[in-house]
User: Fold these one by one.
Assistant:
Number 1:
Amino acid sequence: MSAIETRLTALGVTLPNAPAPAANYVPFVQVGAQVYISGQISRDAAGGLITGKLGADLDAAQGAEAAKTCAIALLAQLKAACGGDLDRVVRTVKLVGFVNSTADFVDQPKVINGASDFLVAAMGEAGRHARSAVSAVSLPLGVAVEIEAIFEVR
């Protein structure tokens, strides 16, 4: 079991199978030592979509929980990209988080903190990263959050 998976177990998290792409793209691309992971959308434990607009249907705390589910899916994709060996992971490089929100909602960073905080909890210092947190008027399938990431691997 990798160090990341040991931490995940302590957090009570089991990685799901990496979600299949929903359209004509690949879930990840490795270029040199970097793995670029396509946007992962917010899903509940049963695989259902977490939908809604922040500032209307959901508050920042609910959005942060949705963002955490995106981070779990990112790690599932990363595990697939590493051939099942998360010990190959060096660090999280960058997250780009999209928040489905109303025009007056200004807490996008608090929402994406759900993913950032989870990655640090799961990966320690290797989970710290550069980040963007932006608003979107709409996201695919009406989901609350979508996050893409770049990781460095050995």
Note: The chain has a mean pLDDT of 97.
Number 2:
Amino acid sequence: MLHRIWLFFIISAFLATCVKVGVTGDLGAFEDVMNAVVSMAKTSVDIAIGLIGLLAFWLGIFKVAENAGLIDKFSKVLAPLLCRIMPGIPRNHPALGSITMNMSANVLGLDNAATPFGIKAMQDMQSLAPVKDTLTNAQILFLVLNTSSVTLFPIAVFLYRAEQGAAQPTDVFIPILLATSASTLVGLFVTCAVQRVNLFNKVVITYLVGVFSFLAAVILYFSSLAAAQLAEQSSLIANFLLLLFIVVVLVAGYRKKHNTYDLFVDGAKQGFEVAITIIPFLLAMLFAIGMLRASGLLEMVMQGISYVVSAVGFDTRFVDAIPNALMKPLSGSGARALMIETMQHHGADSFAGRLASVMQGSTETTFYVLAVYLGAVGIKHSRYAVGCCLAADGAGILTAIAVSYWFFA
């Protein structure tokens, strides 16, 4: 899927440039596109180098968190809920443990840990499947919760915003929290409705009341603030929570009698490797997107969407971030590249730059998650999983637009 989209971008940009030369007589159009390719190649390396220090720091902290057993503690909090919303899994089955480990890792932003736990969870649930090449109800709900992916600390988005020169890289924290919560709740409700899972029992209601109470408190608090204070307060709370998280992780590691310094250094060593690894993916997508913009095709499409939006009386500022919304379910690297390119073109602190950041943190990459997890257990028939996942994605994107207008317009 992704390679076709990538090739479509490149061919479309080439054809649009040919039309530009032939129709408007702009003989410098090909040079502009090639300059964009060269510029994006350099940009991809600059971004990766700029991220090395930040990646090394957070990977070091996460290494301590893993060894301190924080994921295990999160799993104990989630286990009672999972037993009710996934009735097809018997109590004390190994799948419940691996599911909670995966979800806990996602909440903490431990992407490298979440994927192995997710594959293990799919394998454990597969042992209960009556038809081995078809997803079970529990597997579908698990996939929906993964693609909607509530992440308490969207570190990656903060890192990219900092690298792109945002004045307050964490000012998108509360908007991301609201958008990703909406995505997860809609995904949960839609999937449970399809599966006819009873959500009206004491345990599930207790969890949902807790979630909605927290979100209501967040909304009420920020509703009381002046517009100029919204981004400032979001950044303040995010930075406090991040610092608190760092201290809690290090203290937890120390209390476990671990050498937190050595663990941190071991984790930080991966920062350079991760930064170098992402260069080819950034390069592939950034140069294709650069071609689209230099050819004028991307601007033409955005103008068409803006015309339709303005014709029905809506504000058009969100249109500049629409490519991120369209790419996010298809490719994490593609959406990340679009977010970076949007911040570079419009500015990290522009409305479009912030909205693109919120969209990036609101959901996971649906088709990548489905491909990895279905492929890991050899499943061919996904049933209604794609529809439920896309429903969650849609809720996340719409909420991202709404809260971005609330905070940053």
Note: The two ends are 35 Å apart (CA to CA).
